[in-house]
Amino acid sequence: MRKQTYVLTLFIAAFVLSIIQACKKDPETPVTPAPTEFVADNNTFKAFQNWHLHATKNGVDPAMLKTAHGGDDSTSVRKIYFPTSNVNKVNGQYPLGTIVSKLTTWSGNGGGSMITAMAKRGNNFDASGNNWEYFVLASDGSIMVDNGTVMRGANLMNGMCKGCHAAVSANDYIFTK
Questions:
Q1: What pTM was estimated for this model as a whole?
Q2: What distances in angstroms separate CA 173 from CA 118, 140, 162, one per listed residue?
Q3: Residue 113 in domain
Q4: Most buried pick, 9, 38, 135, 142, via CB within 10 A?
Q5: Is 16 inside any structural domain?
């Protein structure tokens, strides 16, 4: 009987210790604060043509100025890319770090192409434009430099980007999604 009591006591003690160990509070895992700003660089838009093709638009773009994205004629083809197919608004706004690119090609008027992009920058970068930054890209997806001017900003092309996109401010400045 003593042996059974001893074994039972050991079993109960082990059980109680395991419960105590399980209830001990784990040390706090440090929480990294969410970023408040996303700053695109020359790698952000690389290989954008491998992203999710969200839409292809052909011909004259009724929503855009004739020169906004180049080649706005009947031969124009505009392809809009997002990094993934599940880029969606949260509470009516695209999240910080949302990026989109547009490749416009045309064969009329001598032919050509133009790549433009947007990035949701945040951190009050341009509060009046809902913190979007606009870009003109080189063919490799890097941010274009034209005569020493880096082609990026809130007022790129004298405010033309933000000015047109403001027409869809209720859709967080994006025409196609």
A1: 0.78
A2: 10, 25, 8
A3: yes
A4: 135
A5: no
Number of domains in the chain: 1
Task: Give me the pLDDT at residue 78, please.
Answer: 92
Using 50 as the pLDDT threshold, list the residues of the chain that sit under it.
10
What pLDDT sits at residue 130? 95
> Do residues 45 and 78 lie in contact, with contact meaning Cβ atoms separated by under 8 Å?
no
- Per-residue pLDDT tens for 89-129? 999 999 999 999 999 999 988 899 999 999 999 999 999 99
In one-letter notation, the amino acid at residue 87 is: V
Indicate the helix (H) or strand (E) that contains 167.
Answer: none
The whole-number pLDDT of residue 1 equals: 56
Predicted pLDDT at 159: 78
- Domain carrying residue 150: 48-171
**Integer Cα distance of 161 and 13 in angstroms:** 72
* 11 assigned to some structural domain: no
The reported pLDDT for the residue numbered 5 is 60
Q: Are 66 and 108 in contact (CB under 8 A)?
A: no
In-domain check, residue 36: no
Contact of 119 with 109, CB cutoff 8 Å: no
**Residues 49 and 80 sit within 8 Å (Cβ to Cβ):** no
Rounded-to-integer distance, Cα 25 and Cα 61, Å: 60
